[in-house]
Amino acid sequence: MGGKARPPTHNYALVERAACSARISSDRAGREARRRLKTKKEAGSREKGTVRDKERRRLNERKRQDRDRRKEKKGERKREKEREKKRKRERKKERERESRGAPSSYSPVNSARAGVQNHGRLFRELQPPCKWWRWRWRRSWRAGYGKQADGPGERYPRFVGYAL
User: Fold this and answer.
1) What gap in Å lies between CA 154 and CA 98, rounded to an integer?
2) How many CA atoms lie within 13 A of 103 on its CB side?
3) What whole-number distance in Å separates Cα of residue 139 and Cα of residue 156?
4) What is the pLDDT of residues 77-124, one digit of tens each?
5) Which residues, including other chains, have CB under 8 Å from residue 53's CB and lie 6 or more apart?
6) What is the C-alpha separation between 98 and 102, in angstroms, rounded?
7) For residue 160, which of 120, 101, 103 has the smallest C-alpha distance?
8) Least confident window among 30-39, 95-104, 128-137
9) Contact at 8 Å (CB) between 121 and 159?
10) pTM greater than 0.85 (yes/no)
11) 143/121 Cα distance (integer angstroms)
């Protein structure tokens, strides 16, 4: 019947529950005893241990160690790759900074003066003063993606921001 949380409606349920729990506990006791006996037997045999068992155990141990070592190596290689990637990224940033001649912190005005026309960020940071500029900016920004800007020969617009 199992352990329900509600009180029994009549005596019959109570009796049944008691009988059931007694049976379960006796079953469990038997199981426990059998298990204990088994483990005791196993423990005895393990202590003696045939030569083959010992060899197998030694082999398994070596296998486990090898596996662990391989995993460790793999992890180390992964970490090394990550470090290398980071170093590369840093070097690239450093080179960009040197070629740009701007300070290390990002400044839209400086990057624009250095001839870097990174449309998106620059335009978003420098608010156009009036509707005409906004239209001009939009036209030029669109033109920057392979369309004509100020003439057929110029792929990127001349306009980089009004604050320069």
Assistant:
1) 27
2) 6
3) 11
4) 999 999 999 999 999 999 888 877 645 445 555 444 545 554 444 444
5) 46
6) 8
7) 120
8) 128-137
9) no
10) no
11) 16
Sole residue written with tokens 């001349």: 158
The amino acid at residue 99 is: S
Q: How far is CA 65 from the centre of its chain?
A: 28
Q: What is the DSSP string of 60-93?
A: HHHHHHHHHHHHHHHHHHHHHHHHHHHHHHHHHH
Q: Are 108 and 161 in contact (CB under 8 A)?
A: yes
- Looking at every residue in the chain, the average pLDDT score rounds to 68
Mean local confidence (pLDDT), 129-143: 55
CB of 105 closer than 8 Å to CB of 91: no
Sign (positive or negative) of CA dihedral 149, 150, 155, 156 = negative
Nearest to 164 by CA among 115, 100, 99, 105: 115
Q: Residue 157, Cβ neighbours under 10 Å: how many?
A: 19
**Cα-only R_g, the chain:** 39
